[in-house]
């Protein structure tokens, strides 16, 4: 969701009409369509940048923070529309979604994005590049740290179906009925199973996430 939103804001910042700001930036203004975030209402969009005579005229105000911006040579507050969109993305989406569910190795990178956008140290170009770096690490499995090989401690049984009701519940899970997580490989699944005292076995399903990660179901017996 956050990556899709950043791609949308990147387009708005570099649109043929100029930098577009969403004046009524609320979660209810967005919907997911085929895995991509879309804006449902463009009535409150604007390409107007705030006019200014000096830097003192260019303060971007939010309920909890204010940011001083520069007055450009053309008499417009430089990057006002782009930064307003980005900070709204931070306070309505990033703060609620980025800190949760990511693999431990990727959390520092996501915290860096969260802090940089919260302070508006990143523009939309830097934010998109940072998200794409995290996505690459996640899809490629490069985020996995070298660790002892734990899969060798498990016996692989193919063609068997486990009994219903054996799953224990965990967080975060793709299913409220049991413990369903996504991993890059069976080796990562073994490492996660070893780290949870309730887990005695796991099964690899045919489910895939939007990045192609496999679904793993964990069991206590």
Secondary structure elements and pairings:
Layout: H1 2-13, E1 21-22, E2 30-33, E3 36-39, E4 45-46, E5 59-61, E6 66-68, H2 80-97, H3 107-118, H4 124-140, E7 179-183, H5 186-195, E8 201-208, E9 214-219
Helix pairs in contact: 1-2, 1-4, 3-4
Shape: elongated
Name the beta content range. 15-25%
Q: What does the main sheet amount to?
A: 3 strands, antiparallel
What count of domains describes the coordinates? 2
Supply the number of helical segments: 5
Residue runs with pLDDT of under 50 for 5 or more positions: none
Q: How many E strands?
A: 9
What percent of residues adopt helix (DSSP H or I)? 25-40%
Structural class: alpha+beta
Seen as an oligomer or otherwise, the chain set is single chain
CATH fold-level name of the largest domain: Transferase(Phosphotransferase), domain 1
Structure explained in plain terms:
This protein is an alpha+beta fold. The protein has 2 domains: 1-140, Transferase(Phosphotransferase), domain 1 (Orthogonal Bundle); 151-219, no CATH class. Helix content is 31%, strand content 17%. It contains 5 helices and 9 strands; from the N terminus they run H-E-E-E-E-E-E-H-H-H-E-H-E-E. The chain has helices spanning 2-13, 80-97, 107-118, 124-140, 186-195; strands at 21-22, 30-33, 36-39, 45-46, 59-61, 66-68, 179-183, 201-208, 214-219. It has a 3-stranded antiparallel sheet, covered by helices on one side. A two-stranded antiparallel ribbon has the order 1-4. A two-stranded antiparallel ribbon has the order 2-3. Helix 1 (2-13) packs antiparallel against helix 4 (124-140). The model has no long low-confidence stretch (mean pLDDT 87).
